[in-house]
Design goal:
This protein is α+β, with helices and mostly antiparallel strands and 342 residues long. The chain folds into two domains: 89 residues; 232 residues, 2-Layer Sandwich (BirA Bifunctional Protein, domain 2), CATH 3.30.930. It has eleven helices and nine strands. Strands 1-4-5-9-8-7-6 form a seven-stranded mixed sheet, with helices on both faces. It is elongated. The structure holds 3,4-dihydroxyphenylalanine. The site of 3,4-dihydroxyphenylalanine has 11 residues, from strand 8 and strand 9.
């Protein structure tokens, strides 16, 4: 019996070496461990073994059985890995060492400016939020103090969806949601794409980008607004610029301003870009109207704040001296890749 076990072990070692597929392994399992297999044969042979060595033989057969099981298990892992490799080799016909012919992409000029503005505001403690492109009528208009029939609605003709929602005409549409999310005090900016029903020309587009900002706190005032805008613009335009406020009107701010920046091309001396005035109109802003704060759930006895709606498209055009707004949405690669190295 002992010799028989030895023989079988040698036979097993020989055939398992040649097994290189799951089918072959399965055949071996059946041949050795199956109901009519060689190990079962051995066990049945125990009957004829003299009783004094039966126990010893039983242990020897069991050891052999465990040996076969564990070698089979290892072989399965090995063959599976081999089969996977074979599959990969036959499917993967790409030579990854061939040099690429595709050109490296670049960020869109508006993305570049947006990132720069975001970085400056983040460094000053502002949170950057996202906004929706499809907005409810309430958020886009009513919640920023522009109820139905308010004449200011006419200035922002937009695209209405069948379900009564709108493609947002201004990032201000996010104000209510932000106020409800963060409450007071808060410092948040939220860039986004806006849409208006415009006649398109060199300086008007139906699709453009703004970056809205809000800062609400106990005694936030116009001086804070001026400080943040001057700091941000100086960093983004990489020049020490000055800003000034002129009176403006927006239903969602009181008082409202137009913020001008010293012309970065002539430093304020006067040139064709600033129409020889030395200043460029850049960013409408103001102190948030109490009605807007209240609709956002803010206690106006305790809190006040400023808001601004920076024209990102306008800022990008100014920074890169782009005269034609339509080029920005044109998909013209040579034009758009000019920001690659900046
Ligand atoms: N939403 C205005 C627009 O698109 C811009 C604006 C003005 C935003 C004043 C503001 C603000 O936050 O305070 O015309």
């Amino acid at each position: 019996m002992k010799e028989r076990i030895e023989e079988l072990k040698m036979e097993f070692d020989r055939v398992i070496n040649d097994a290189n597929s799951m089918e072959m392994i399965d055949e071996l399992r059946v041949a050795f461990l199956g109901k009519k297999g060689k190990v079962t044969d051995l066990l049945q042979g125990l009957r004829d073994v003299p009783s004094e060595s039966r126990r010893e033989m039983g242990i020897a057969i069991n050891n052999f059985k465990e040996y076969v099981e564990s070698v089979l298990q290892n072989k399965i892992q090995e063959v599976k890995a081999l089969e996977l490799q074979r599959e990969i080799n036959s499917a993967e016909k790409i030579d990854i060492t061939i040099p690429s012919t595709s050109k490296k992409g670049s960020l869109h000029p508006i993305s570049v400016v947006q990132k720069e503005v975001e970085e400056v505001f983040k460094s000053m403690g502002f949170i950057v939020e996202d906004g929706n492109e499809v907005e409810t009528e309430y958020n886009n208009f009513d919640a920023v103090n522009v109820p139905r029939n308010h004449p200011a609605r006419d200035m922002q003709d937009t695209f209405w969806l069948d379900n009564g929602e709108v493609l947002k005409t201004q990032t201000s549409a996010g104000q209510n949601r932000i106020l409800r999310k963060y409450g007071a005090p808060c410092k948040v900016i939220f860039p986004g794409r806006c849409f208006r029903n415009e006649s398109v020309d060199a300086s008007h587009e139906n699709t453009f980008f703004q970056l809205e900002g809000m800062m609400v706190g106990r005694d936030i005032n116009v001086a804070n607004l001026i400080y943040f805008m001057k700091t941000m613009l100086s960093k983004v335009l990489k020049k020490d610029v000055d800003v000034r406020l002129r009176p403006g009107f927006f239903p969602f701010t009181e008082p409202s301003f137009e913020l001008d920046v010293t012309c970065p091309f002539c430093g304020g001396k006067g040139c064709p870009t600033c129409k020889h005035g030395g200043w460029i109109e850049l960013c409408p802003c103001g102190m948030i109207h109490p009605a807007v704060l209240k609709m956002g759930g803010v206690d106006t006895n305790k809190y006040q704040g400023f808001a601004f709606g920076l024209g990102l498209t306008r800022l990008a055009m100014m920074k890169y001296n782009i005269k034609e707004i339509r080029t920005l949405n044109s998909g013209n690669i040579p034009f758009l890749s000019q920001t690659k190295t900046r």
